[in-house]
Fold these 3 entries.
Entry 1:
Amino acid sequence: MTRPACSMLWVALLPLVGLIVTARPAEAIPAFAQQTGQPCVSCHIGGYGPQLTPIGRAFKIGGYTQGGGEGLAASIPLSLMATTSFTNTASAVPADQIAQHYGANNNFSLDQVSGFIGGGIGQHSGGLMQFTWSDVANTSHVDNVDLRPYTTVFDVGGKELRIGTTLNNTPTVQDPYNTTFAWGFPYVLSALAPAPAANVMLAAGLGQSAIGYTLYAWYDNKFYLEGGAYSTLSPWTLTRMGNGFGIGSTTSPAPYLRAAYEWQWGNSAAHVGAMYMHADVNPATGPYATTDLAGADHYTDYAVDGSYQFLGDGTHIATVQAIYVHENQNLRATSSGSGFAAKYNLDQFRANVSYWYQNTYGVTLGWQKTWGPANPLLYAPGELTGSNNSKPNSNAFIIEADWVPFGKDTSLWAPYMNLKLGVQYTAYTQFNGGSDNYDGSGRNASDNNTLLVFAWMIF
């Protein structure tokens, strides 16, 4: 098989990988509550997150170093999480696309079991590391990593300036705002339902396949600025960590910039922000292989985001979050010898609105839209996961209802016992470029409408 053909085959298989690496909670762990002596709802909306309050953002930007807890438990930085679910799609998955050990539809699954190490080491260092096993894929891997090697505070003109460093494995996993992708809504996804093929680099291109070094500054609890770069790990390292290449391997450090400004008044908070990332990559030809025979592909993402939170006295809580990303693609390597053009673009918009009553009962409405011109290099026809017209267009509406019986400071065995029960429905009006026969094999976008019933536990 030629290099371009092999590369295009691997790109076509990427959505299949997405079917088994989609469930991705959560940032809130009981170890943090024990360390700080604060209930989970001080830092998180909806019982135990991962959506952060202003206090939660300060804890994260502060390097997970805040103390205040007492007793032996306050010094044990360990937590355990599990998610299990039932998945129903409007139409069954084709027989040759069924995940091993599961049926074509109506599946119960143990989506993931995760162990966490998280907390502060003294006043200047801290971090969070997640290790995950999935029953769907029957694999284990190093999941989200956000380490803060050093952070400190200066007085500048009577205002606090916090400076810090991060070492992380996924762009936006270190970000304090839940508009971004690593901790963005939906916080729980089905590991078995089909997912759209197209995604921007910031959302999925280098996730858990790279190491990022960034420096950040936070002035007066308002202005946040971060900059750094990401480089993909070697195939040897990725194999041992249980992760694979996303869009490819970086040929040089990929710059990452983030800026945000936050307002806090009364019982409300809001922010506006922007992000930039550029990566030159040798395209992936397999989970642990890339090629440089035809040079590199180039991806550049520009994003703007914003949010609003009304926290009140904890009885009624409302939030709004949105992010828009424009991506320029120069697929010079992937297009080599194919006869197709190299330059394309991709746009994505995500927004959600949520309401919580006493951090116990919640409802969230979400909208996700991805669009762009036909791109035969990345999106080819194929049963279930392909695009018959080579377009990336997908449009989804999500509604989720949650109940948190355990997860507040007054809950039984708090903060050790945390449980969220949820019902989520995703409706597609477009999927991989079309509404009807989107894959060229007769499947419609609405056939992928998904009902997900889940239980999310953290101890």
Entry 2:
Amino acid sequence: MSVGIDEISFYTSNYYFDLRTLAEVQNTDTEKYYQGIGQEKMGMAAPDEDVVTMAANAALPLVERVGTDAVSTLLFATETGIDQSKSAGIYVHRLLNLHENCRVVELKQACYSATAALQMACALVARQPEKKVLVIASDIARYDLDSPGEATQGCGAVAMLVTANPRLVEIEPEVGNYAEDVMDFWRPNYRTTALVDGKYSTKIYLKSLKKAWEHFREASSLAFNDFGHFCYHLPFGRMAQKAHQHLAKVNQAGLDADQVEAQIADTLHYNRTIGNSYTASMYIGLTSLLENCKHNLAGSRIGFFSYGSGCVAEFFSGKVVDGYEKHLHREAHSQMLQARTEVDYARYLELYRYPDPRDGSDNEIEAVTTGRFRLAAIRNHKREYIAV
């Protein structure tokens, strides 16, 4: 019996901000962003969009197919938590009308926790193969204005249904892990934006990749050349390119630059126009690979490197299932991305600075999103979500 990802769907905001506009405002070259970091656009959440609404929108197609009573567990991964106690997944549980016997829990470890959720989901299904586990990762990446991280903002959510005998990707049990207490990226409770030591974070990312890979090689018989494609955590596209060049060099793979690039190129398409989605980014990258690769991936093995600052990292593998292309949401994703509205710099600042009330006062939130779910109000410190 195999266990893995049976179905995958993602969602991002209605608005986007083109980094060409940011470059013009900053009087810098657009290629600094388009080529330098591999990003063109960043998703900007509308006033009535947040990690809960994006998560529910991402998961809706999966739940509509299998039914609301089919999900036994909902694992919600995020580093954009909205409450110190209550899981954001509980709101999603209600919005999707999941069964009352469905367990719900939120996981946190920077951008890594979706992988923890996926591995936990696989373990639950391996124990009870008749069960279906819904894994959702949802985040909004925010940095200070005029900081080096500003251009790497973005938002998005991804939902994965984990089952026995999956239709998309079989997740293999061998993993390589690495953890270290470092301060490369963090966001204290009293801040709405993250703090990052960019050069140090890149150094730790690459170190963690090497360490996790070495541990993986101890656990698995697979070598670098057994993989056809690789998915990386994507704080920005260029980071994945640097990482894969590093891993190829470590393994003395004997590939030229074009061959190395071809192993990750199809994972970058969606991220380039969405921006950083933290926990969701690697799995949106997987979706991009499955939906944009020109050749049939059936039987191909994918290497995954998941990284969460602070830090925890993991390398693991998966094998694409024959017939996977029949079970994708390619058209829906394409239509969603094409329907987004571009914002100018003034509107970008309005969205960035939209009030985040913390005094318990009543706040009606303007209806803007075109999604199926929205944040309607905040009253007495309570967030009120509705279906539309």
Entry 3:
Amino acid sequence: MELKLEKFTKRFGTTTVIDSMDLTVNSGEMMALLGPSGCGKSTTLFAICGIHRMNGGRLLFGGQDVTTVPAQRRSVGVVFQNYALYPHMTVRENIGFPLKVQRKAKAEIASEVGQMAELVQISNLLDRRPAQLSGGQQQRVALARAMVRKPDVLLLDEPLANLDAKLRLEMRSEIRRIQKETGITAILVTHDQVEAMSMCDRIALMRDGKIVQLDTPEGMYRNPKTQFVAGFLGNPPISFLSVTAGDTLSLGEGLTLARPQGLEASGDIVIGIRPEHFGPQYGTGLEGVISFVEPQGREELVDVRLANGQEVRAILPVGDPLKTGQHVNWGVATDRILAFSQDGARL
């Protein structure tokens, strides 16, 4: 089911948190609301599920205006960060509770709970209580409970924040599998760009109550509209360098890079270099001293301090040992340089 926010406005007292925001989530799509703390992503989610009242604009589910429909009458399933399971109930009772509230027949509830438990792969845990479950198992129960009513929209509010790294990786793929198998329209709220990029069809990157870019994960990574977007996406993060654009890009102290084709700006600008686009495989051009090496198994993160004092990071496969203090002269994939004006706009 398509979900649409039109001119969505939300105020808390005299403070306007979100002002006239438009967003369309396509039917069967998984959309990420991504951004730093305080950007308005959870506020948007709570308005969609009915916890927050909208101060302006409209909310439509499948073309139907549900702006003033009470939360309990919206066809929405919500999974919260803290799972919010009932501790005195078994897994079976937790999953079936929304159907019990709807006064469904016991046989129907049992059937629906069994199907949902099989979908999220917890059929063997139905007689346990939440205290007897791991974090990942509790998350699966919360997901099953949210989806057992067959809602039109699934809302996920930082669902992986309380899991350890291994479980987080596992649940990323599991939530995406379940979403694709059911074809449900879903919105994921997260501050973790890896989650957003790996789980979602599109990302709405938010800042100060506004969507600053809406795109596919690959499109946003390769073609960010602003320096903020480029800096928010990417792990390890992008390196930003101040340069003077002329016939070449001058970094000072005799350091220069070839001018990227199509760059029309001149004077003082900022360039962004992704760590995978800097290293010995690209020839030479940037001389400096290795200031930090972080082994990560099959690859290494290497920070190089240039003669002008700026630093640029590389991500390299493990090879010849690299040491702090070692002098290097590495190149850049010039065609992958991102250029920005001093105020952060893409050039």
